[in-house]
Amino acid sequence: MSITARVKKNQSTINKAMSWLEKHDIANSERDKADDEGKKVSAIERRCEQTFDNYLHYLSLLPKYEQVRIEKL
Asked: How far from 61 is each of 9, 26, 37, 50, 51, CA to CA, in Å?
């Protein structure tokens, strides 16, 4: 998934935010799968939290109009 920034200087931050969002989606899928199988999920849960925190960090560095464009996806 990729998005083009309205202002070119924001593109690298958008790419980082999107990368962390994709990593969070993968970790979230793994967590759901582990829940279904009854496996211990503490490490996976921690990874989900870390990836989402990183996503929020990079999102907070962007202007509001770029944040809205990302969250619409």
From this structure: 12, 23, 38, 17, 16
